[in-house]
Write a structure and sequence with these properties.
Elements (H helix, E strand, L loop, with lengths): L34 H16 L3 H18 L11 H8 L3 H14 L2 E4 L3 E4 L22 E2 L12 H14 L14 H15 L8 E4 L1 H15 L4 E6 L4 H7 L4 E8 L2 E2 L1 H7 L3 E4 L13 H13 L3 E5 L23 E6 L11 E4 L2 H15 L4 H12 L2 H27 L4 E3 L6 E6 L6 H10 L2 E2 L1 E2 L15 E6 L5 H16 L1
Parallel strand pairs: 3-14, 5-6, 5-8, 8-9, 9-10
Antiparallel strand pairs: 1-2, 4-11, 6-7, 10-11, 12-13, 13-16, 15-16
Length: 504
Amino acid sequence: MRASETNPERDTPWADTAPPAETAPSADTAPSATGAASASAAWELLLPAAGAPARARGRSLQAALREAVRSGRLAPGTRLPSSRDLAADLGVSRGLITEAYEQLTAEGYLRSGRGAGTWVGEAVRQARPRARDLAPRTPGARADFVPGTPDLALFPRAAWAAAQRATMAEVPHGALGYPDPRGLPRLRTALAALLARRRGVVADPERIVVVSGVAQASALLGLVLHARGTRAVGVEDPGSPQHNALYASTGVSTVPVPLDGEGLAIKPLRASGVRAVVTTPSHQFPTGIAYSARRRAELLDWARSVDGLILEDDYDGDFRYDRAPVGALQGLDPERVAYTGSVSKSLAPGLRLGWLLVPRWLAEEAVERKRTLDLGHPTLDQELFARFVERGDYDRQLRRCQRAYRERRDALVAALAEYFPGAEVTGIAAGLHVIAALPARYGPERDFLARVRAAGIAVRPLAEYTHARAATDPDAVHLVLGYAHLSPARIRAGVRAMAGARAA
């Protein structure tokens, strides 16, 4: 059967109406409302072929149409235009289109029926493009002790929704324009009061920059330092491995500086030659220590002596369980410390909301970098969070989290004592994780980790956070165990399963 006989001129070009029942597409390939759009987009692929030399034009049209079907640009069930209409649109003879339809129908790419037109067939089952989810997760784990995740079920949905409704009702139209790249004055004022009250920060609203979490704050500082000639910054060892990639993206390398029992070791810091260093002094990640008062003073003396800068990441400074949280280092010398924090541990990392408080001598450059990166943080998010802080909802959320996380910390420490006698647990005074050093009889560490992971338990060894591990016993097992996102019952069951895997 010739395609010209099955494409009456009454057919509408690129129509997506259903054909008669006897030739209708199958249910899973029935044309959708997007059929015409996909066909129209694919038609553009035929234009270069229509302009090919006369002798090659027919083959070129067939190849272009075949590729449009094979690639999914023409989806199964899409109705094609009549040969007359397509020939007119492309400026070619109708015979070339008829011949192309016949050839691809014979090959199975197209199908046709008398009086029903020509349709893309179902023979080609090209996988439809799918959006992948690259969010960091541990799927299928019986127990997930990977640190760094808060309990997202504690997110205050009701209070957040109330603040959102009030914000949408009250925010003026003019506020929806491009914001101050530093952040809305209302939010910066609220943050200055919050940080001064809870973290002992010397907070000037004019030097606060609202950012998309500590990651963006680090990138901003890296760009500013690089522009000033800095090519390396010191990082704690052990410490967060994310700092390496963050600063490398700004052209700044990282130099590991070891810790001792009081914090960052000053002698190796001086020997490193760097003039900027990234620290977590209130609750060091991952060891869990708080820098001693003496080490804080020594660190500030170092910064003054080299005309340097301390980059303070206060990632979970609000969560301390044995006494009031240790104040931020920035409060001791606001001109030598750039302070960063976020809501990632207190509310949810998906909000992408944080703050950067910079020394006066860096403020203008940091703000300009923020401007060029994204023209400022989303206005509605800022208005909402400002209201959330002003009404005391954020303080209530912090107290709620503190109670829950203390209970889970206690459950983890008790379970480790029961199922791993002799284990030394440190870093328990604050934060969302502990360090568990298991005796040598539970090792070697590599074998222990293999058995535990085979049992479906997600854990991270301390070695993953170190540049050069120095352990007195190479057979001992050192784990960094996060607990904030697990209920006490799940914590106990996970530790019991971990002990069972060790004994297997």
